[in-house]
UniProtKB/TrEMBL annotation:
This is Amino acid permease. The chain crosses the membrane at residues 12-30, 42-62, 88-114, 138-160, 172-192, 212-240, 252-272, 305-326, 357-373, 379-399, 411-434, 440-457. Keywords: Membrane, Transmembrane, Transmembrane helix. It is a multi-pass membrane protein. Pfam families: AA_permease_2 (PF13520). One of its GO terms (molecular function) is L-amino acid transmembrane transporter activity. One of its GO terms (cellular component) is membrane. It is found in: Membrane.
Amino acid sequence: MSTTKQLQRSLGLRLVIVVVIGNIIGSGVYKKVAPMANELHSSGWILICWVLGGIITLFGALSNAEVAGLLADTGGEYSYYKKIYNRFFAFIFGWSLFTVIQTASISSLAYVFAQSLSSIVNLPPLLPDLAQVNIAEVFYPFADLNVKVTAIILILLLTWLNTKGIKTGANVSTGILVLVFTGILTIVLFGISSNAANLVQPFQLSTTTGQAVTVSSVFTAMLSAFWAYQGWAAIGYVGGEVKDANRTIPRGIAIGVLLIITIYLLVNATYLSVLSIPELTQIHQAGNQIAAVEAVRSFWGSKGAVFISVLILVTTLGCTNATILASCRTYFAMAREGLFFKNVANLNKENTPANSLWYQCVWACMLVLSGSFDQLTDMIIFAVFIYYGATTLGVFILRRKMPDAHRPYRVWGYPIVPAVMILFCAVLVLNTFFIRPREAAIGLILMLTGVPLYWYFTRRQTQKIQELNN
């Protein structure tokens, strides 16, 4: 294996769109309507939050697309931040991807895959007597151990698959997405046709508790929506493997996000037409149920529950695969610059950063053992919106730093669209600190562990330079 071999540009627009959508559609489209119902107690406000989440995501995607079109390279925001800010900020971002954002995404998706598999084949319990063993009453590593072990096995298998080359991983995602779209469209058509009399139910703004919806509850509910939209920026991590990246990446991001917004509105309106808010709240409080499974069970019975469980298996399999495929490229780019562990810079004979994949795999498996699904996803959204805001701010900075540079795409609605995105990111991060302080604190601590490591890596680089000079 060599550190001088180069990544191959093999992804065109179709596969770019596949990677964008494949990184987004995962567990959120099936699971997150229940915690939103528990927070808002209003079907109409749930749909409003999905729309707002989609608009903000699109604003972020359009802003990101301008930066990506100008600076496209392997590593995504890591490469952008070096030019927008400095190496330190770029490193902290890359380290945050490794410790929180992308590895926890892989863990969360694999966890839901394992939950769905358990509902179909009834996985036998593992070490049930240790289920209450905990660390500071926050982490319960042995709780639902059968589900967690299954999730770990999935991460290991998909990591191995992606060491065989990027086109192999991307083509697997293409096949999976065809099945996913077919399944979701089937749910929407049958759900709406079997409950035509209840089509007004999803648009009722009144709450079942009689209490008004607050701004804070809207932002808290949107944490769930944003988990479902999370992942669109991952295409930037494979920028060095995209044909005509400066044009293809912006187009792929915009097309992918617009398709996702449409799908999410249709499928969540279907859930809300067949399940009441109290039913969705009960599903959330049960802890081990998935809203989509119960919705389909309501109009198809037990066979429908099996169908949707299989669909969730396929969807989370695809999203886990796409996330594993894209994420490891950032750590590879960092290692090539001496800012990550040395052997992560190696490519295998398929020109794939295999060592980076395995480092990512090990930490993702540890995160599976660390927490629950909702704990992981709230931690991810807190962390990722710090960097969404930073990338969007980069639109303004780069227009000052590089006013005459060729931009294949300029963000629509400038400067209002990026300004709204930055403001929203700031409010969401602050709200999460107050509403989910534990998840925000854990995420922040993991991100800040990168500070001493940056010192270590840069000190090692300095020593090497001194040795060469001597």
